[in-house]
Design a protein that fits this description.
Elements (H helix, E strand, L loop, with lengths): L25 H17 L1 H22 L12 H32 L3 H4 L5 H31 L6 H25 L3 H17 L12 H7 L3 H14 L6 H25 L6
Helix pairs in contact: 1-5, 2-3, 2-5, 3-5, 3-6, 3-7, 3-9, 5-6, 5-10, 6-9, 6-10, 9-10
Protein name: Transport permease protein
InterPro entries: ABC-2_transport_permease (IPR052522), ABC2_TM (IPR013525), ABC2_TM_bact-type (IPR047817), ABC_2_transport (IPR000412)
Subcellular location: Cell inner membrane; Membrane
C-alpha cells in the first residue's frame, strides 16, 4: 500500500470547523442573495405588480374622497403630498414581507436547515436576506415612481435623497422582517406581527397627513417612530417638502437600520428559535 503524498494530507492548520474561504464566504453570500431575489421574481405578479396596483388604488380613492375638499398641504396639492408617503409605505411593507415570509415558510416547511447548514456566518445570512428584501423594495419604488411620473407628473426633486431613504427604508424593514420571521413559528404569529405592529406603524407615521396637524402629545409620540423619518425623508426627496430635517431623518434611518441588523445578526448567530 502506498503512502499518501504530502499534498493529500490535511494541513495541520486546517482543523474541523475552520473557514476555508477567507473572512467572507462570497460564493455562499451571493448564492443566498440570488435565491432571495429569485423568490420574488418568480411570482412577480404578486410581489411587484400587486403593490403597484394597491398603491394606485390608495391614490385614486384618497384623491376622489378627500382631494377635492382638502386644500394644499405644505404648499402642494393633497394628492402630491400623499404620493411619496404611499410609495414609501408600499416599499417598507414589501421589504418586510419578503424577509419575514422567506424565514417563516422555511421554518413551517422544515427546510430552514438548508439555510443554516451551509458555512455562512450570522452576518452573511443577514446580508443575504437583506439583499432580497432591499431588492424587492427598490424595484417596487421604481415601478411606483414611474407611475407617479407618467400619470400624475410628479418627478423627483432630490434624487439622491430619495434613493437614500428608499434604500434605508427597505433595508430597515428587511431587518425587522428577519427578526419577525425568526421569532414567529407559524403563520398566525406572523400575521399578528404584521397586523398589530407593522401596519399601524406604517399608517400612523405621516403617510396621509402632516404631523404638524396632530395634537402635541401625538406629535411627540410620532417622532419616536423611525418609520416617520423614513417616510418624511422620502417625501423630501420626491417633492421637496418635509416635516423634519432630512439630515436628522437620515441619521435616525441609519441608526435604526444598524440596530435591527445587529439584533438580527445576534439571533442568527446564536440560532435563537431556529436550532433545537
Amino acid at each position: 500500500m502506498t503512502q499518501a503524498s504530502g499534498q493529500d494530507r490535511p494541513s495541520p492548520q486546517m482543523t474541523m470547523g475552520t473557514r476555508r474561504f477567507g473572512r467572507v464566504n462570497w460564493l455562499g453570500l451571493a448564492t443566498l442573495a440570488e435565491r432571495e431575489v429569485r423568490r420574488f421574481l418568480a411570482v412577480w405578479t404578486q410581489t411587484l405588480l400587486a403593490p403597484l396596483v394597491t398603491a394606485g388604488l390608495f391614490l385614486l380613492i384618497f384623491s376622489i374622497a378627500i382631494g377635492p375638499r382638502r386644500g394644499d398641504v405644505m404648499g402642494v396639492s393633497f394628492t402630491t403630498f400623499i404620493a411619496p408617503g404611499i410609495l414609501m409605505m408600499t416599499v417598507i411593507q414589501n421589504a418586510f414581507a419578503n424577509a419575514s415570509s422567506s424565514i417563516v415558510i422555511s421554518k413551517v416547511q422544515g427546510n430552514i436547515v438548508d439555510t443554516l447548514m451551509p458555512p455562512l456566518s450570522g452576518g452573511e445570512l443577514v446580508l443575504g436576506y437583506l439583499a432580497g428584501g432591499t431588492g424587492r423594495g427598490l424595484l417596487v419604488a421604481f415601478a411606483i415612481g414611474l407611475g407617479l411620473l407618467l400619470f400624475l407628473g410628479i418627478g423627483v426633486q432630490h434624487p439622491l435623497w430619495a434613493l437614500a431613504f428608499v434604500f434605508l427604508g427597505a433595508a430597515f424593514m428587511s431587518g425587522v422582517g428577519i427578526i419577525a420571521g425568526i421569532y414567529a413559528n407559524k403563520f398566525d404569529q406572523m400575521a399578528a406581527i404584521t397586523n398589530f405592529i407593522v401596519t399601524p406603524l406604517a399608517f400612523l407615521s405621516g403617510t396621509f397627513y402632516s404631523v404638524d396637524a396632530l395634537p402635541p402629545v401625538l406629535n411627540a409620540i410620532t417622532h419616536f417612530n423611525p418609520i416617520f423619518y423614513l417616510i418624511d425623508g422620502a417625501r423630501y426627496g420626491v417633492i421637496g417638502v418635509s416635516d423634519s430635517s432630512p439630515v436628522l431623518g437620515l441619521a435616525v434611518g441609519v441608526g435604526s437600520t444598524l440596530a435591527v441588523c445587529l439584533v438580527a445578526w445576534r439571533m442568527l448567530a446564536t440560532g435563537y428559535r431556529l436550532k433545537a
